[in-house]
Write a structure and sequence with these properties.
This protein is an all-alpha fold and 225 residues long. It is built from ten helices and no strands.
Amino acid sequence: MKSRVRRSVAISGVAILLGLTASAKAGPPLICHPFEIGQAKTLPAADWNRKGSGGYDLKNLTRDTLAILDSGAPVLVRMETLRRATIFARQDPHVAKELISRLQARAADSDDAGHPDGLAWFDAGYLAATYMQWMGRGEPNPATGLDAYGEIKKAISLRGQDPEMEFAAALVTLSGPESDRQQHARMAMAGAKTDPLLAQNLAANFYHQTTSELLTAPPAGGMSK
């Protein structure tokens, strides 16, 4: 009996360890998996597993990020740019605050000018979402209190039909609300039929499943929220 109990405890311990390892490997969905952007220009590569900027001068981060965003880059390029920017920004709280403050002000300024800019609101909301996933507890997070998903939804309403933006919204809502995630995922997959790069991102491997499978998987227990 005691040997069976010990085996059971050992098996349970291994299962827990494997589960923790899988979670660590999967990582934050907006951070740990690079987005495919073809040959488009973005920030230098950033390794989310390592500390340090890899030689990149952080004082240039806000300027370089805005230059890419203001060039009219497609949404997928913006997602990858903001993913890399977040990894770099975590190295310096002042840089992190400067970047998100500039993007929030840029979006608000478009409203004040009477020409609300969907891409500007997307940039502000998506950066806030990546900060929320990557800035750890006990460290400054300038995205605290911001409605990242609300800003992305505003961007979608301003842009109209934009499958790549729907893809971003689906990733942001992986932890809920469930009905919104499913809707965004359906819109993204429908648009991917005429967007090869989006289709490539949806077909990419995301820890033993495709990204599209991850986004359309039913909630635990099979009940929708």
